[in-house]
Design brief:
The protein is of the alpha+beta class. It contains three helices and three strands.
Length: about 140
């Protein structure tokens, strides 16, 4: 697995205000509510938002050993994929359900807040990056 830290490569990620982040989250929840035909209430269906609304794949692998830091998830913008460390797989350890959902939500945040830096409106790369390249969480 090729690991590319886009920040170290010079990609500037502008800081976002709390209000902007909240507005983006609210917009995503409204879109999801329109998709499923009902208001989005807790608990939030994070996996369904990833797959049904955002059209992302979610998979499991030994993610943490691919990084120098103890990373539990990563997103591949070019392949529209999120990978979560296999130790967090809900069917293997139900006690780690909260960290699984937190990690998945964190990666979804990258997609919602930053995909415009790497992709155009049609999902085409705006920067060259290979299929195995991803943004370090």
């Amino acid at each position: 697995m090729k690991v590319v830290d886009w920040l170290a490569q010079g990609l500037e990620v502008p800081p976002l205000s709390s209000a902007r982040i909240a507005a983006e989250a609210d917009a995503a929840f409204r879109e999801y509510a329109d998709l499923v035909g009902e208001e989005t209430l807790a608990p939030i269906e994070v996996e369904d938002i990833a797959v049904s609304l955002l059209k992302l794949s979610v998979g499991f692998d030994n993610v943490k050993d691919s990084f120098d830091d103890p990373v539990r998830g990563a997103i591949w913008f070019s392949r529209c994929e999120i990978w979560i460390d296999e130790e967090l797989h809900p069917s293997f350890n139900s006690e780690l359900l909260h960290p699984f959902f937190l990690t998945l939500a964190h990666e979804l945040d990258h997609w919602v807040l930053h995909r415009h830096l790497l992709m155009d409106q049609d999902g085409n790369p705006t920067l060259f990056f290979g299929c195995d390249s991803h943004l370090i969480p």
